[in-house]
Amino acid sequence: MRLIHCADLHLDSGMRTHLTKEKARERKKELLLTFQRMVEYAAENEVEAILIAGDLFDTRNISATACHAVWDAVCSHSEITFFYLKGNHDTERFLAEREILPDNFKTFGTEWTSWPLGERIVVSGLELTEENAGNAYHSLVLRPEKFHIVMLHGQETKTGAKDRAQVIRLRDLKHKGIDYLALRHIHSYKEGQSDAHGVWCYPGCLEGRGFDECGEHGFVLLDVDESVGTCTRRFVPFASRRLWEVPVDISACETPAEMLGRIREALGGFKGELPEAAKQISMDTDTLPVWRPVTSTDLVKVVLTGEMDVESRIDSDYLQKSLEPDFYFAKVSDETTLRVDADRFSLDETLKGEFVRTVMAAEDLSEEERATVIRFGLRAIAGEEVLGCD
Questions:
Q1: Three-state DSSP class for 334?
Q2: Residue 266 to residues 73, 200, 262, 291, 354: CA-CA distances in angstroms?
Q3: H or E element: which one contains 258?
Q4: Which DSSP letter does residue 11 get?
């Protein structure tokens, strides 16, 4: 039996970070369309259940469009069972929209709830709260003859420090008979061995929304052999767009043209790799390469690195504008360090030389602070407009 494990879809997310209003609206629609595409993928690939392990929505004030689109996807695919575990971003309004839930839509509460699936599979889930977190692990009882999928939302930890919501103590879930622990909260793919028998997995978010969510995003496809109680899994990249943060060393560059050339060279050779854990479980290498190049549909953040002469001028705005036509979105961030060649100014009798020697002699400034003061002081001496540090 095939199942999909997804989480952190964050439908109706504002997507306002860095994007224009028009592109933010477009990305908001793309999140919803990716969810609908995933359901169609499930129907076309004989997937019998979709595990939504939390944060289906991003805000408590969900739009009618998003709410109706999700219900339409559920109701029009009665052959697929949807298991929905509410996350901390989700809202009661979504479920309140319908007086009677469809038969193929299963939910969980603040006590353990178990649903049978097929002949041998059982899907159990619990909404962790401050009130039930302390007893949640002790109250989970599973029948050993079944294949058990358990859904929880929160950050995993191997220690049992505190009983608080949103923290999952993996140590206390060992030897419980869990075959597959379907988690959510971390927005990138992550998986591990919970004990000698079972595994835990975060599928990551379905679409990256900001540059803290770079790389490939998608869902996990499970294939459970009910006859022997085994499960194989595969990470499926599925996002409509990807986000990349690409470091570019411009130490040897002196002009904007040279910097732009170095950036384009780095982007052309950049390889966005799958998470290491996702590589290990990716079985179909013909359709799932371990890396894919940056494309024009992606969102790119170029991080300038290296050591630059204090008199160098990095025009991040110019570089960003030059890249914008090549990508859906482009951003340039200057994280270079400054180098001051004190010997060059030691015999300089001009105002510039005197200024550099005075700043270099200031004992109350760090090396980085001296370089920054010198950079902007030299610009001011040259008559350039200095609006602030960049």
A1: strand
A2: 41, 36, 6, 15, 39
A3: helix 256-269
A4: B
* Stretch (H or E) spanning 277: helix 276-281
Rounded Cα distance between 9 and 33, Å, is: 11
Q: Which residues pair with 157 in a beta bridge?
A: 169
Spatial neighbors of 126 by CB under 8 A, at least 6 apart, are: 108, 109, 110, 111, 112, 113, 132, 136, 140, 151, 152
First-to-last C-alpha distance (Å) of the chain:
55
To which residue do tokens 């780095």 refer?
266
**Average pLDDT value over all residues in the chain:** 84
Q: If you ran DSSP here, which 8-state letter would residue 57 be given? A: B
For 52, the token pair is: 């939504």
What are residue 168's phi and psi, to 5 degrees? -110, 120
Return the H-helix or E-strand segment holding 149: strand 147-151
pLDDT tens per residue, range 336-383 = 987 777 777 777 878 888 888 888 888 888 888 887 888 788 778 877
Total number of residues shown for the chain: 390
Decide: helix, strand or coil at residue 31: helix
**pTM of this prediction?**
0.83
- For the stretch 146-170, what's the b/e string if a residue is b when 16 or more beta carbons lie within 10 angstroms of its beta carbon? bbbbbbbbbebeeeeeeeeeebbbb
| Measured distance CA(118)–CA(289) in Å, rounded | 33
Asked if 112 and 140 count as a contact pair (C-beta separation under 8 A), the reply is yes
H helix or E strand, kind and range, residue 262: helix 256-269
| Per-residue model confidence as pLDDT tens digits over 22-43 | 998 999 899 999 999 999 999 9
- Check pLDDT > 90 for residue 89: no
- Taking only the tens place, the pLDDT of each residue in 127-175 is 888 788 778 888 998 988 899 999 998 766 655 444 344 678 888 888 8
DSSP letters spanning 167-210: EEEGGGGTTS--SEEE--S-SS-EEEESSSS-EEEE---SS--S
Torsion region of 174: left, alpha or beta (phi above 0 gives left; psi -120 to 50 gives alpha): beta
